[in-house]
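Course assignment 3, question 2. Fill in each field.
Student: A.L.
Task: Predict the tertiary structure for the chain below.
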Amino acid sequence: MDAPSFSIVLDNALTVFTYAGLIVFAMSGGIRAKQADMDIFGVVTVGFVTAAGGGTLRDLLIGISPVNWVSDPWPLAIILPSSLLALTVKHMGFSQRAVLNWIDAVGMATFCVAGAGVALAANIHPLMAIMMGVITATFGGLLRDILCNVVPFVLRQEIYATAALLGAGLYVGLLKLGLDPALSALIGMSAALLMRGVALHFKLHVKPDDSNTSHFPGSK
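Answer field:
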């Protein structure tokens, strides 16, 4: 694939995956905020932090200025209503915990690929691009859980950051081998989601979990 067509396909794939990630991460932030009994402002705020936090840190680290959601109005237009979708989950009869886990898994899988792609497009070294993918996929959720007084997935024994690392690594590696950008992204995202999904379904952890504590010490 020649350079111009590669760039176009890569940009289009990244746009699709980024917007999909914004939707599901904003929803996961809204659900977590509702679990913490926050009002509508809290739901929207946590939804925004969850969806935009990882990408913001990535952009700052690789020197993209202004960060994406400052220069482009679409992320905000997507994040705000997506956060409010969390208010409908309870009324639809779904388990908030199950919905949060699976929505968060989709967001992680999507953002690990999108984040790595943005870094590659900025001419960042492939290994660092993989790390940027992991940061993009995990940092927003980390901030979300801290704001809601919950120990973040990434700091527990969950198979979470490992799944993001797998997805970003596969994506970057396949790109460097010359595979189609959209197909590379799909494979990377699918691998990350599969690893996280298997871990959720079979309750797998990095090591045996001796405690079910999900809140910070001293909290209820």
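Instructor remarks: Residues 210-214, 216-220 have pLDDT under 50 and may be disordered. DSSP finds eight helices and no strands in the chain.
Grade: pending
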